[in-house]
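Sequence and fold
=================
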Amino acid sequence: MANLWEDLETGPNAPETVYAVIECLKGERNKYEYDKDVPGVVLDRVLHSNVHYPSDYGFMPRTYYDDEDPFDVLVLVEDATFPGCIIEARPVALMKMDDDGEQDDKVIAVPTEDPRFDHVRDLDDITQQQRDEIDEFFATYKNLEAGKEVETLGWEGRQAALDAIEHAQDLYERNFA
């Protein structure tokens, strides 16, 4: 069985087009994580706070970020997919975040195969309401977990997302190649 973190390329044209391996689904509270040792998506926990994921959420293959995990990606979708789904996506923004003292930024992307998102190319194409909802989710989703502290640190555009993906690819190569 293929290991979706190690065996899949970061994308067909990374960093401009990436693969997002979906773990958590839009509208749900279940926190799934890909376990490369299984390999498969396992239930890590149910969010303690009464919030739900604002869109499908997962990671990009062959990336490793400053929090010592695969690089996170939130893919804006109309309808939830399923855990383990691989979405070809176009990065459009970067949300900066600190999670318990570790840099834990999130790439915001859109599916390349959904015409509803053809116009979304950069941060300014994401509505302020969408940004506020994403920020609110990540700022509060760990509030009821003992000892967890999260701080959202603002937004950057497409180029910052592309640079961060290249950084995550370099970290992966240095640590695992």
